[in-house]
Structure formats: structure tokens, C-alpha cells
Amino acid sequence: MAAASCTVWDSVLELTKSAQVKNCDPQLWAIQLSSNLNSAGVDLPSVELAHLLVSHICFDNHVPITWKLLEKALSFNLVPPLVVLALLSTRQGITFIDIISILCQKGFLFYLYFIYLQGCSESTAPPGCTLNAFNLDTLRIMKSIDDVVNLSQIFGEQLCETGLLLVEFVFSIMWQLLDASLDDEGLLELSAEKNSRWLPRPEVMEIDGHGNFSEKRNEHHEGLHKVNTTMAIELIGEFLKNKLTSRLIYLARQNMPSHWGSFIERLQLLVVHSAALRNSKHVTPDAFLQLTHDTRKVLSRECKTISQHEFHAVMFSGSLKSSVGQCHGASQSAIWLPIDLFLEDTMDGSQVTTTSAVENLISLVKALQAVNCTTWHDTFLGLWIASLRLVQRQFGILDTEQGLKLDTEQGLKLVLLKCLMSFTDPNKHIPDKALPQERNPSEGPVPRLDTGLSMLLSITTLVVANLIEEEESELIDETQQSPTNQRKEKQGKRRKGLITSLQLLGDYEGLLTPPHPVSSVANQAAAKAIMFISGLTVSNGYSMSTNDMPVNCSGNLRHLIVEACIARNMLDTSAYLWPGYVTLANQVPRSVPSQTPGWSSLMNGSPLTLSMINILVSTPASSLSAIEKIYEIAANGSDDEKISAATILCGASLVRGWNIQEHTILFIIKLLSPAVPADYSGSESHLINYAPLLNVLLVGISSVDCVQILSLHGLVPLLAGALMPICEAFGSAVPEVSWTLSTGEELSCHAVFSNAFTLLLRLWRFDHPPIDHAMGDIPPVGSHLSPEYLLLVRNSLLASFGTPTRRQLRRRRYSKILSLSVEPIFMDSFPKLKLWYRQHLECIASTFSGLVHGTPVHQIVDALLNLMFRRINRGVQPSTSTTSGSSLSSGPGAEDAQARLKIPAWDILEATPFALDAALTACAHGRLSPRELATGLKDLADFLPASLATIVSYFSAEVTRGIWKPASMNGTDWPSPAVNLSSVEQQIKKILAATGVDVPSLSVGGTYLATLPLPLAALVSLTITYKLDKMSERFLTLVGPALNALAAGCPWPCLPIIVSLWAQKVKRWSDYLVFSASRTVFHHNSDAVVQLLKSCFTSTLGLSPPHISSNGVVGALLGHGFGSHFSGGIAPVAPGILYLRVHRSVRDVIFMTEEILSLLMHSVRDIASSVLTRGAMEKLKKSKYGMRYGQVSLAAAMTRVKLAASLGSSLVWITGGLNLVQSLINETLPSWFISVHGLEQEGGESGGMVAMLRGYALAYFALFCGTFAWGVDSESAASKKRPTVLKAHLEFLASALEGKISLGCDWATAWAYTSGFVCLMVACTPKWVLEVDVDILKRVSKGLRQWNEEELAVALLGLGGVGTMGAAAELVIEMGS
Where is this region: Disordered (predicted)? Predict the structure, then answer.
């Protein structure tokens, strides 16, 4: 057989040589050749024939007749043109420009042009040059090309697919044209590699008149070569402009980034230096480069109907900031609504998180920027505005008549109005009530202004700094990896976007008014800029006095933001020169300010005097070096200096040192973990010797704001890791040694332990009701927090610290003198803490038993009971496992009891539950009065404040068991709430007025017998014995949330009763307490929760009744936050605020998700009804401008649909976090599509549009949820779970497209969802596509093609990596045919 084959090709060669010698007609030769090959059974076109002919011609037979023979072989489809081109391009002794020259002379370029640039259609290409002639469906031809050009080796791809090889070959042809053009103009030497991987470098390259190469080029050939160079460049442009080839090139760009980078680098050389390109009449350098960045040809949606075209146009519109959106109530702030919700949710003081708000906010900002397709300056502007709104809700600018925060534009108009009137008519007065006014924040154990300002000036600036640093580090990495190693522009798009956003922020004056407590700081920031412009230098280390302030200097929050950005090296002082940043008229400073004793004095070496300490405590550090100085004093100074330095660290530098806040926290954590001295030899822990220093730090960071700020920075796990050794050491120490503080107080081990232990408990959901541990399919976010979990997060955080790129960058920003131990620690290292935690869990799970008489624990119980009830004569007996029990009335005295309790605190905590059980039992049986019980509990808590944890744990468990008789709150035995219970009821109704939720009545016929479960009555009686001072507040912040959560889980109206009692005790907490009681309505009534969710949707979308809201979006959803300092008393609370304070207590979060999904669907119907009315549809049909009107109406509807989806997804994500989002995508959405729904059937054209709008709403809903939970990249730990969920969901969609799953929803909804979700994923989250299994992508793509979505199918496959590139290329060719 081989011999026969050789005979065939020998005869072909002889036939060709004979035709060459005889100069016969090429057509006759081709006919004869075709006949011979057909007779021999050779498949045509023949790769072997192409090899033979090119080998024969190049270059021993380089004469005109041989090229004519090759031309006819191509015309008669005897040889594959691509193989011929590949063979010619690899021949030694010829450049690609020479090929162009040869082809131009011989006419072969005519065929090449048609093959590539006209899509090889039969109507335009010459005979034999159709797709069938390419035979692209077979691998043989492309494999032959690969063998010739070595594509797989050059591009490093092992797959051998027809489409993949085709993409590589087309890319290589264009690259060869580029390298040939650069080489011909002498520009190749400027490239990184100095040569071409494609072009041979022969020493002789001239074609002489006899077909041989000579050493010199004559002028004719020089001119011809220039023409051919220009033609080659224009041919590259045609490759990029042509629909078919541009798509193939796009696939290479998308999936071969390193090769594409090298190609672009050379293309930029051509654009900058090529004379031929500049002289071209058909393409300009700018247009040439733009073609390489134009992906619209792949992502364009050429749909078959007008309605589809409009929908897809809206899907890719990207932004809601058009005039259409504004006309229909969706302001510019609408697209950033998820940021507003996230920020407000983080301000909930009842929730301490282990993850950094910076990391979460970075992921959220990236997600919204991707999905909304906004510029970075718009993105940063939206972030700043959302953060400013948070501050204003905390302590902000309000409309005093309506009780709602002014919209940005409204506030600006009023301010401008007053300024204008004062200029035109100085005598005319505008009443202050018409202008934004400041209010006092609500008091209570909740984060206040300091936390809100930290969010704006520390967290948000860190988010922006991380985003900018991330981009610029990528630019540096690209520069280092680039072959040219040319330094790229340092300032990326994000830094430029920051500058633009801050310049634009000055237009939002209504949001920039600083709260009164920081107005002086804002004034100083403005004065600093004025003095800089005036040429006066200002040191960072002093505080400017009022007398030194420039005349009429008025600063705002933008000045503070700019200063924060300058401090973090995102801006420089050129920002002071921005137009309108400051006004110099009449503001020349009277004199250069004199320094007051403060941070600059410290840095200059001044000692810590009492006056300086007071200043440093009240003034935040001006720089990292200043706070480092204080840390070194706290670590290495004298005992007194250490105490002073620790006090300074926990002062203003912690809560308002926004530029160095994270450093201050880390220094405090480091000081809480002092190293073992080298010469230490004691038997007890070395930490005991640091008691005074540790106590100052513990007390200094125990406020609500401090703990919340720690939580925002994600440093709670590190703090927990520092507190546990302190608890273990001081809880195990016998309180024999005490320390005298500067105030004269005695400090004991028990006191240090109590401060550390109560702070530790606040870092996890200690106050979570016991019943919540066993309720709900998916627990609320954060409910799994425990000591073990905190340590796991701490170990993970430190283990990964410095490994990912972003963490390396962040670590470089930290102080060089800070060294954190990365050694993991576990609960086994703290046996006493572990034992207490086990007992805590046992207390929740079962009743107490097993107390044996005469044991050490029994003796401690006796001593505790004597301590608690030393004032009474009746006996209280501990429960024992024996039949005997001693009456404590005849026991030792109180002093002796305290002496007997000079034992480790852990031992006392172990015995405390038994003492509590005995006391509660005695009270239930009448042997102990309620007042005596409360007094005894207070004595116990005063003796060891840490026992409050066990008190809360025990009483919570007992309330849950429900075995105790109720206590009658009648004012005789127990305190009575009757004085203000009715007032509380009315205030609750007023708070909930905006939601339409009914409040259950507290009385029937004007009377009500208030009762509480006995353990709950005992606990509330204990809390109201405390005076609300600074010391007690530390412990009430532990008990208060627990009491609140416990009462909320009890039957209505337990919490209103408790609120009534507490409001009598602490009037200034009244508003907070009433608001807490109002939330209980939703805990007991699922219908109320649904109504609240409905109010969130209707208010946001502007669908509420006129008396509730008319504008919609953020102002209506979140309102003014919470407060009662308005005319008329407490105001209705916006539904969004209520939901954000309620959702953590809702146990059935799956129910919440289903309701949110249902409300989203109903909202779409309402949106369609309000925008796409029947009259509007008739107008659309009849008007000659119907298309334009239809686009406006549809765009308006899609704008609000997207807003509704954004709201719904935000609520799902905030409610249940990652687990709930994954449950939604894996289970809820597939179930919804399969189920038959009871939504009313809208008929006619508008009904079809409603169905489609629902599909698009679900597409946005799913994508928003996914991006919020997983992020758009792979930076977060949650993103590791994304591939599994995406695989399952896309497999469901593929099965639906294939008809394997029967859907219950409207077909138009299913089509809109599938195409919309894939479309959004392609456009907004391309990295997701890379994580999906190749086979699933191909199945989805095939299904989309069946639904006439070829363009989308190509775009999807094009992002799937090399594995799907071949299939994408084949689909491109099929579409081109």
C-alpha cells in the first residue's frame, strides 16, 4: 500500500514537472491531476498534495508557471488553502512580507482575502474556497497545519481540537503579519525579544528576476516592499474588523493572556513608530489599537424580535444613572443600596463578627462595580455617599417636619437657597426648620457616633486604599513579568477614580455637615489646607486652638475624608488646590499657631506629665510614629509610665484616631499578650505581674463603641486569643495579692479576671437564647460563634497573614516594631476555661444534679449562699444528691464567707449554678422574698462580676425549660410596670406605624395582669438594682443584650414589661428600650415579618401609599435611623432599619428567603403595572415614535426591577450569609422554577412582558446574591465554595434547556432567566465561567443555540478557558456560514 502511495505521488510530481517544462495550460494540468487523484482514491483537498507542491516550488522551481499551477490547485479545491499558507510561512529564506509580495504578484492573495475576510461564503468566494473546501469539521487538515507550524508547541496547549487549532492558526497569521511589518520597518529590534518566533532570519531575502534571492534590493522591490508592508498592516486591521476573524481573535485574547500580552506589546510598537500605519488611508493608529480592545462584536446581542433586543440592550446598559432612571424614582444612589444596608447592619451592636468589615466591603464594592458596570469614580462616589448617610443617620442632618433624612439633592437645594437669599436679600430670613438640623443620638448600649465615624474615615478609607493598592500591585507585577520590563504608569484607574470622586463629593453639601462633636476637627482640617495654600507649614503633631484658627474657617466631612486619604498615601497635598475645596477670602490666619503640649511635644522628647497625658488621652495620635512611641513606653517604661501609656492608647487614638486606628488596636492586643521575661522563674503565670497594666487596657477597650470598632477591623479573633490566657491565669490565681491603683482602689485577681472574662464573652453569641441552638434549618449569621471558633479563626488569620498578595501589602503597612506570634493556640491550652464552657453548655442542655454533700464544690456553694443572704434569718439550702441539707441561717458570717471565698475565680464559677438553683428554688417555695433574691444576686455579682455570665446562663436555661411558675409583677412581691406600660404600648405602635404591622394589645378592658417567668423576673430584678455609671455599664452591656434576647423569645408581652421596668429606672435609655420592645412583635408573628418585608420593597420602589413615602430608594427604606429628638416625640422607624434589627432573631431563614422571592415577583408585577400600563402599550403601538417610547418605558421598568432584585438579594445575604445564598441557588430557585405558581395570569402583550421581567429580575437576584456571598474574584475564602454551587445550578439550567426537566413557570420567565443569568455572568463575572465544568458549559451553550441565542453561546464558551475555546471557534465558524 505504501509503495502504491509512493507511486501516486511520484506520478503527481512527474505530471507537475512535465507541465512546468512544457508550460502547459494550468487548468488542463489541474483537471488531469484531479482525475488521477480521484482514480487513486485520494481524498480532496489533499494535505499531501499541498506539501508536495510547496516543496517543489520553494525554491528550486520558483518560476511563474509553478505558481499558476498552485493557483489552479487552489481553485479546483485540490489543496487546503490554510495548509498552503502554513507551509509557505515556515519556509526558510522567505519572510511573511515576501509571501505577501509573492501572493500579490501571483494573484493568490485574492483567495486569501476572500477566505478570511469575506467569511468564506459561497456567494462571495471564488470556486473551491467555501467552508466545505476548508473541511473544518475534520481534524486532519488542522492537525497537518499544527505539524507544519508547531502551534501546540508554540502556544503550549496539549488539546488537539479543530476549533482550538483554528484559533491558534488565525492568531499566528495575524502575529506573523505584525512581526513581518515590524521587521520590514526595522522596529522588531525595539521589542522585548528583539526577534520573532515566527520569522526566519536568513541572510539572503531578495527575489531576483529568475526567482532566486540576491543580496541587494533594487528600488522597485524596495517600493514594492513598502506597499506590501502597508497592505500587511491593513490586513491586520481587516482581521480585527471582520466579524468572523475578530471573534476568533477575541477567543485568543480571552484565553491566551500571556501570548496576547506579547502581541499587544508589539502592536503598540507598531502604533507608535510605524510610518506605514501613519500613511495608511484605510486605518489610523488610534482606531487600529481600539480594535484590539473591542469586545462588542462577541458580546453584541443580535436578537430576533424588537422586545428581545430592548431587553438585552437594558441588560447590558450597565448603569442606573440615566435620565430614564431618575425620572421614575430611581436616583443615582439606588445602585449602591446594598452598601447602605451593609453599613447599617454592621452598626448593630448586638452582633460582633469575626470577619473584617474592610474585607467584606471590598468584596461588595467590587461586586456592585462589576454588575453595574460603573466607572471607579462613580463607584467610590457611591461608597462615600453611603458612608456619609450612615453618619447622618447616627447623628445627622434631618428634616424636622417629616422626621426623615433629607435626600442629598434636597439638602443641597436648601443650603444653596439660604446662601443665595443671604446674598440677594440679606434681610430676608429663612427659618431654620426649613434647613437640615442636627439631632442628638439615641442613648443605650449601642454603637454611637464614634463607630459611625470610624466606618467613614477608617474602614471606608481602608477599603479604597486596598482597592487602589491591589490594582497598582497588579500593574507592578505585570511590569516585572513583562518581557520588556518597562515600568507602566504607577497611577491606575482606581486612584484617578478616587480623586474624581472626592472632587465631585463637594457637590453634596447636604451630607457633608459634620456632627457637632467633630466640627472642630473638621475646621482644623480646612484650616490646614488654607494655611498650606497661604504658604504656612503646619505640623501634624499639635492641636490648633480656636484663637489660632483662620477667620471664618468652616470645615466639613469632605475635609476629614481628604485628610484620611492623604494620611494613607492615596492623595497628596495638591488636593488642597482643588477648586472650591477651601475659600481664602478673608481667611488669612492671624498668626502662625503656637504648639500646645501634645503629640509633637512627646515626639520631641518631652516627658509624660499629667497635663500632657490628659491632652494625649483626649487627642488622637497624629501619625503611626507617634502611636509607636506610646507603645514603646507602654512596653518598656516604668510602671507608672506603662499605666499612663496604656491609658493614652485606649483614649482618643483608639476611637477617633481614624488614620492609625488598626495600628492602635494591634498595639493594645500585643500589650495584652506580654512575653515571658527571660529571667522569670515563678510558679504562677507571668501575667499576674502585669495586672495593673492589663486592667487599664481591659477597661479601656470594654465600651460598646470600642468593641464594635474592633469588630469592624476584623480583629476580634486576635483579641480573643489574647484574653483567654489572661482569663486562665487570673481565674486560676488565689486572690491573696492586690495592687493599689492611682485612684486609691484595690485591684485583685478577681477584678482583672472579671474584666477580661466579661469582655471575652461579648465576643461571641453568649447571649443567644438556648432555644436557638436547636431551631431553624440554617442558623442566623454568626450563631456558631464560640470560643473554639474564635481560636480557629484566629489561627487561620495568622497562618495566612502574609501569604496572599493583598495580605502581604497590608502587612507592609503595619508598624515595623509590631511582631505578632503566629503560633496556633487551642482550647486545650486553657483547661479551666474549657471546663467552664462545657458546664455552660451542660447548663443549657439539662438540669443540675450531682452536688455531693461535703465536697469542695458543696462547701463553696455554702459560702456563696452565706455571702448572698447574710442579711436574712431564713435558711436557703443547696440541692444535693443526698437527703440532707444544711440551713445557711446558722452558718458562718458574711466576713467568714468572703474569707472562705478567697479561692480561684474558676472554682467560684463552677459552684455558682448550684447556688443559683438553691436560691431560685427557695424563692419559688416562699422561703425567700423576691427582693431578697435580687439583693443576694447583686451581692454575688458585686463580689465577682464574672459570675454575671453564669447568672445569665443559668436563668436563660431555666426560662427555656418552662418549669417555673410565673411571677406576678404586681408591685408588691415583684416590681410593677403599670406606671408606663400603656405609654410603652403607644410608642411601639408609633414606631411601627410605617410598616402597617398591628401591635398586640397589652390590656383587655383597660386592665392587664403582668407576669414574667420566675427566672426572667429574677434576672430583670437584678439588672434594675444597678446604677447606670461607667463601671456598671461594662457589666450591663453583657447582661442587657442577653436579657433582651431572652425576653424576646418569651411570650408577648414579656419584653414590653421589662422595658417598662427599665424605663422607670433609666429614663435616658427609654427610646432604645422601647425600640427593642417593638422588635419583639416580629419575633412572635411570621405574618408581621412578611408585612415588614413588603414594606421594605414598597418603600424602596416608591410603591407605598402617598402618606408613607413618595420618593423611594434609600431615604424611604432606611429613613433617619432611630431617634426621638423631634417635635412630637419618638418618630416612626423606617422599615429597613427595623428589619436590620430584627432579622438575626428570626429562626426560620428559609421561610424568609421564600418570602423575599415571592415579594420580588409581586414587585415586578407592580412595577410593570405602574410603568407599562395598558395606555402606554397602546401609545407604543400607535405612535410613530413607538420604538423610542417603548425603550424608555422598558428601560424604566428594568431599572426598578434591577433595584428590586438588588434589595431582595441584599436582604437574603444579610439575613443568612453564605449558607443561605447557596441554599437559595441550589434549592430554592430550582424548586421555584419547577413549581406551578399561583401568580395571577396577566394576559396580552403586557402579560408577556411581566413574565419576561420576572425572569430578568430573578437573573439579577441570583447574580447579586452570588456576587455578595462569593465575590467576583477568588480573593475570599467563600469563593472556594462557588464552583460546586455554580456547577449544580448550571447543570440544572442545562437540563432545563435540553428538556430533561419540566418547568412549572411561564416559558418566557424561564427563557429570560436563563439567558439573563448567563448574559450577566459573561459580562460581569467572567472569572466564574472559568470555574465551571467544561462539559456543562458546552451543554448550556448547546441549549442556548437551540433557543436562537448563538451570540450568547459563543460568549459563554469564549470565557471557559482553553477547554471550551475549540467549541467556541467551531460555533463561530458555523454562525459565519
Answer: 474-495
